[in-house]
Amino acid sequence: MSITANTPQVLRRTNLKAVLDVMRGGGTCTGSDLMERTGLTRATVIAVCDDLVRRGWVRELVAERNGAAQKGRPARRFAFNEEAGCVLGLDLGVATVTAQVADLNGNVLGRAAQRIPGKALEATAAVRLETITSTVDRALQEAGLPTTAVLAVGIGVATVVDRHGNIAGGHQLSAMFDLGLQTEVWRDRAWPVLLENDANLAALAERWRGIAQGTDDLAVMLTGERLGAGLIESGRLLHGRNGGAGEVGTLQLVAGVGSRDGIARLARQWGTQALAEGRQTLIRELVGPETNRVSARFVFEAAAREDAVALEILDRIARRMARVIAVLGTFLDPELVVIAGAVAKSAVALLPTINQELPALTDTPPRVEVSQLGDGIVATGAVRLALDYVEENMVSLTPLGQPAVT
């Protein structure tokens, strides 16, 4: 069946999009390839390809003959021009800003990260905005691209974002990120800017580039300082009425959990408590004699060296996380739950206990895995969000170095 439309008003744009959708799948396409996959006639395919070459979205490759015996004109070959522009993916955390520049196939060309100066929770809007814009400029400089190359910007924020891409008021940290990110910050650059919750972007990233590829029902949990989940059901990202899906605020009501504290925070708190109580543990050697302030890294390192106190802390964290995952398993029935974020690599140590506990806590225990995308997962999801926008609106956008085409 043809994937094009017959309405005269939209026929041209529909055909352009149909051919682009095929070409973005990767590789080189001949006219015959495009005819087979779009249902268009040869004349239409060639006309569309010529139009896309003129617009800058497609490159025509130099034709090569397959040996001296070949007669006639070689088939014309076309490929999507991934260098026709770029997208930006930003992760705006409480204390750090991370920016990635990617080409139109999602390959990262430049990256930059900066901490918010001073005490992050006390930073003014002006300080945050300056950090955001300077981080973006550094990433573009590393990529060697001008601001005019940017076709869309995806931004992940550590607060609730509704299904329309607006920061929802009345939530923790919402005021911190309500900075005019879509309207004021880059007004002079005229970039389309899309906002999304950070955990939702982590879910997009995991399904795009992580271990959840091909999985339609999953939950991806950011588990550092606080817990939050991005939920995908039947391949569709869930937001809820006001964007609160996945915020897991009800954890304070769950026995054995009691708060949204994440793995890093719990390891730090319980490790610090152990030192304050004078317990004999390798954590003391790692932290040093001058302070009781423990980082999560020291707890995981001590546990890897079979320290009894550190192993006890990780056991408590794993049992607590099993209850959190059981809640998701009971209410949402995902096939897969991915533990993600900066502590994900260390969280591998929690999996045996989590998997042992789950069957006793829910009749629908999901498979549990640890993300391999590291602390760049939110920025990667933001790149995917921006690419989705470009792919949906490509025929209305202008590639780098090209005049606007109507």
UniProtKB/TrEMBL annotation:
The keyword S-adenosyl-L-methionine does not apply. Keywords: Kinase, Transferase. Transmembrane segments: none annotated. GO terms for molecular function: DNA-binding transcription factor activity; kinase activity. SUPFAM superfamilies: Actin-like ATPase domain, Winged helix' DNA-binding domain. InterPro entries: ATPase_NBD (IPR043129), HTH_MarR-typ (IPR000835), ROK (IPR000600), WH-like_DNA-bd_sf (IPR036388), WH_DNA-bd_sf (IPR036390). Residues 19-60 form the HTH marR-type domain. PANTHER family: BIFUNCTIONAL UDP-N-ACETYLGLUCOSAMINE 2-EPIMERASE_N-ACETYLMANNOSAMINE KINASE (PTHR18964:SF149), ROK (REPRESSOR, ORF, KINASE) FAMILY (PTHR18964). Belongs to the ROK (NagC/XylR) family. This is Transcriptional regulator/sugar kinase. It comes from Arthrobacter crystallopoietes BAB-32.
